[in-house]
Amino acid sequence: MTRAKIAIAGFQHETNTFNPNLTPVSEFERADGWPAATRGQDILEVFPGLNIGIGGFIQEGQDFDLRPILWCAAEPAGHVCRDAFDTYCGEICAGLKQHAPLDGVLLDLHGAMVTEDHFDGELEILRRVRAVVGDIPVVVALDFHANISPAFVALCDAIAIYREYPHLDMAQTGVRAARLMRQRLILGHPFSRAFLQVPFLIPLSDQATGQEPFAHIFSGFDDLPVPGLISADAASGFPAADIPNCGPSVLAYCTKEPAAQQAADILLGRFLEAEQQLTKSLLSERQAIQKGVELLQTSARPVVLADVQDNPGAGGTSDTTGLLQALIELDLAPAVMGIFADLACIQKAWSAGVGDHFDHVVGQNTQIPGLTRKTATFEVVRLCDVPILCTGEMYKGIAVDIGRTALLKIVGPSNAIFVVVSEQRFQCLDCALLEHFGLDLSDARLIVVKSTAHFRADFDPIAQATLLVASPGLHPCRLDQVSYENLREQVSLIKASPGRDVFAQT
């Protein structure tokens, strides 16, 4: 029996349109937490076993004749450069032509890419892919934070979306996408579908699926009480993107259109019912530190302070000083902070050497009004120039390459304040990124992470409490303070409007 010939490719970027730094080709070509741009047969060697969507394609698609083309991703930042977008779209389309005729295409995309020319990067990718392959089945795996448009849904035969935040199921989403491809090929015609957009935006700080109300919203998708259910999913949206189709959405595939619409209505209802719960308070730097110190009086377990608005995994610069300044000024408890991205600081640390001291102006590259720079004296405790092997559930087995790193101690405060600094931005989502330097986090007091929710998978189990902090940064979590210009009229930042966008097709 002839195996279905399926092309596989990936091109991912989560674009923070409030970050002024463009994302060029070089950012996709280097490795960080994920592999560097990978091409052709190397994809079949690199990705199996990794928690990445295309790895799930490979795992589940053993009965397919897989034709790997390209996979690339870059750390979240500003708009994708025109040259980068055209380069990688061109590679994917050239590969599709090379492997033609094909029976289907599996794409590992993000869903929140914005380029210099396109509000909806993924829609343009699909348009270019369809121009090459025509009407053959195209199935896509998307990130939990995708901003999905009706036009994008119309161009896909099926979409599978991460269901967990932290994203513990990226590879499993790839598996689900490959299974949808198999079902689509067996069926021989498109699924019936329904797509609805949620009429309000939700900050990432409210989106963790281990906490309510998202724990309920994202539960039981495979068990919805509708006949002929094939698949149902929801995307929570990425609100750091000022684009028309920013925001959460739900979609369903069934054997009949009325059932698909029923499933989508159920999921939309969950969002609407939860709206009033989606306003978690964020503490100021001083409030968070003082609350953390109070908690430390009753338990020896550490307290985690999440610097949610300077999350490099959502386009933050990972170098803002608000929390660091407050830690030094209050001087209330020992603290560990990571990961602070500062190339100049690293250069000074390596020039000084372990045991020596140097002065440095922290936050001198930060481009955020109102943030002050902080001059401090640092002691070099440890230096590292090798990738750090992650051990937590989300990134287990992945060697994170963020260039040279250093563990520094701030000289002056009566309480020890340690800072992990790196050459490259990377979200502090795994305990190993701090423990690699000899720190015993179980004995730590305050642990400050530049992350919004991914840290929870590895840090929550060791912490007595997690406090979310609204220190200034380029990743906005107080959406009522954001000046949006391009949102569609049906979207609210605070209260849902009665209107909704509907896309349904048999």
From TrEMBL:
One Pfam family this sequence matches: DUF1485
Alphabetical list of InterPro entries matching this protein: MlrC (IPR009197), MlrC_C (IPR010799), MlrC_N (IPR015995)
Keyword Metal-binding: yes
Statement: the UniProt record of this protein carries the keyword Protease: yes
Keywords per UniProt: Hydrolase, Metal-binding, Metalloprotease, Protease
Microcystin LR degradation protein MlrC C-terminal domain location: 305-485
CC cofactor note: Binds 1 zinc ion per subunit.
Domain Microcystin LR degradation protein MlrC N-terminal positions: 5-291
Listed cofactors: Zn(2+)
Family: Belongs to the peptidase M81 family.
Function in brief: Involved in peptidolytic degradation of cyclic heptapeptide hepatotoxin microcystin (MC).
Entry protein name: Microcystinase C
